[in-house]
């Protein structure tokens, strides 16, 4: 019972982080700023939501799978963000 309440609160905080990040995506005009906001949504929002799901479900295979997915995203997200930023930089230079 307590795990479910704590997990729900943490998931709610993660959803709030994602919503605030989406406001940044809509508000910012430049690609670099939108990329920054999107990367923060992916990283911080996903970490908090997955940790909330792990707390809520307890020790189980679901928790292990969620943590593996989180690890994969944490490895891939900086690579994708860096590649997008480099492509935008090349496009601005006219290469």
Task: Give a written overview of the molecule.
The chain is mostly helical and 95 residues long. It has one domain. Helices cover 91% and strands 0% of the residues. The chain contains three helices and no strands. It has helices spanning 2-27, 31-57, 61-93. Helix 1 (2-27) runs antiparallel to helix 2 (31-57) and helix 2 runs antiparallel to helix 3. The model has no long low-confidence stretch (mean pLDDT 90).
> Measured on Cα atoms, how large is the radius of gyration?
16 Å
How would you sum up the major sheet? none
- Count the domains: 1
Q: Residue ranges: pLDDT <50 for 5 or more in a row?
A: none
Query: Overall 3D geometry?
Result: elongated
Instruction: Specify the helix fraction band.
Output: over 70%
Number of helical segments with 4 or more residues: 3
Structural class: mainly alpha
Please, what is the average pLDDT? 90
How is this fold's topology laid out?
Elements (H helix, E strand, L loop, with lengths): L1 H26 L3 H27 L3 H33 L2
Helix pairs in contact: 1-2, 2-3
Family: Belongs to the CPA3 antiporters (TC 2.A.63) subunit G family.
GO molecular function, one term: sodium:proton antiporter activity
Pfam family, one: PhaG_MnhG_YufB
Short description:
This protein is mainly alpha-helical. The chain has 3 helices and no strands. The chain has one domain (2-93).
What are the main properties of this structure?
95 residues, mainly alpha, elongated
């Amino acid at each position: 019972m307590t795990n479910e309440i704590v997990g729900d609160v943490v998931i709610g905080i993660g959803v709030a982080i994602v919503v605030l990040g989406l406001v940044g995506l809509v508000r910012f005009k430049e690609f670099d700023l939108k990329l920054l906001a999107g990367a923060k949504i992916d990283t911080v929002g996903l970490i908090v939501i997955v940790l909330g799901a792990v707390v809520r479900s307890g020790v189980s295979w679901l928790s292990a799978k969620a943590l593996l997915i989180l690890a994969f995203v944490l490895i891939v997200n900086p690579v994708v963000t860096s590649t997008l930023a480099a492509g935008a930089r090349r496009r601005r230079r006219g290469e």
